[in-house]
Amino acid sequence: DAGITQSPRHKVTETGTPVTLRCHQTENHRYMYWYRQDPGHGLRLIHYSYGVKDTDKGEVSDGYSVSRSKTEDFLLTLESATSSQTSVYFCAISGPTANTEAFFGQGTRLTVV
Amino acid sequence: SQQGEEDPQALSIQEGENATMNCSYKTSINNLQWYRQNSGRGLVHLILIRSNEREKHSGRLRVTLDTSKKSSSLLITASRAADTASYFCATALYGGATNKLIFGTGTLLAVQP
Q1: Contact by Cβ (8 Å): B61, B44
Q2: φ, ψ for residue A85 (rounded to 5)?
Q3: CA-CA distance, A34 to B28, in Å (whole number)?
Q4: Please, are residues A93 and A31 in contact by the beta-carbon 8 Å criterion?
Q5: Cβ contact (<8 Å) for B30 and A31?
Q6: Rounded to an integer, what distance in angstroms lies between the CA atom of residue B97 and that of residue A51?
Q7: Is the peptide bond prior to A96 cis by the omega test (within 30 degrees of 0)?
Q8: From B36, which residue of chain A is nearest by alpha-carbon distance?
Q9: Residue partners of B90: CB distance under 8 A and separation at least 6
Q10: Which residue in A has a C-alpha nearest to residue B42's C-alpha?
Q11: Which of A60, A91, B23, B41 could form a disulfide with A105 if both were Cys (CB 3.0 to 4.6 A apart)?
């Protein structure tokens, strides 16, 4: 895989607790993305980043926040986890220009009980 | 609602046959990309076609893009059992340097040996 690591790979958490997922890249790519994948919905964009401290909302950003203080790290935080946020979360990177392919991490399976 | 919609949602064919998947999208794009996902894994990039291109080939893959109809197709020729996977189109939206990458809902391809 293209130098992209997601952690943790699996997590079970309780409703109402905050959760942070980490995406780390070693490719120095400009663009980073967080998606969630649910049956029947494909991949839906939560947030993305186009540079350090430059982030924007995706299609399903409610209940999620992100931070990118370094090129290599993109953090996704569920401020107060709910059962509807049970999903598989994928991080992706692309760059250095806009017309380039994206590389995906292996995913994080999050269960909110 | 999602930017990209694939058709059909599921496709079952015999080994050696060709498989065609279609993708429709809603807004102006910089490029359109196709990805493959094996069960439980991250997505893998297959091919990227820019908005000023009409057709592109890569091995057994052929992709077309019709920006007037906002649609694309992916053709896999001489399919193999190993091609069994989910296939997604993704559009990189036009405008600025933000490179927002939106995925469709996917086509599940089953190739019977």
Answers
A1: no
A2: -95, 5
A3: 22
A4: yes
A5: no
A6: 10
A7: yes
A8: A104
A9: A102, B4, B32, B33, B34, B35, B101, B102, B103, B104
A10: A106
A11: A91
A 80-99 near B (Cβ less than 8 A): 90, 92, 94, 98-99
Q: What pLDDT is recorded for position A95?
A: 84
A100 shares contact with chain B (CB less than 8 Å): yes
pLDDT band at A58 (very low <50, low <70, confident <90, very high): very high
CA B42/CA B28 separation, integer angstroms: 27
Residue B100 to residue A99, Cβ atoms within 8 A: no
Please give the torsion angle defined by the CA atoms of residues A83, B39, A36 and A51, in that order, rounded to the nearest 10 degrees.
150
Q: What is the pLDDT of residues A63-86, one digit of tens each?
A: 999 999 999 999 999 999 999 999
At B42-82, the pLDDT tens digits run 899 999 999 999 999 999 999 999 999 999 999 999 999 99
**Site of tokens 């926040």:** A65
Euclidean distance between CA atoms A45 and A58, whole angstroms: 5
3-state SS assignment for residue A92: strand
Question: What is the residue-wise DSSP string for B23-72?
Answer: EE--S-EEEEEEEEE-TTS-EEEEEEEETT--EEEETTEEEEEETTTTEE
Amino acid symbol at B4:
G
Residue B88 contacts residue A25 (beta carbons within 8 Å): no
* Tokens at A11, concatenated: 């997590």
> Max CA-CA distance within chain A?
40
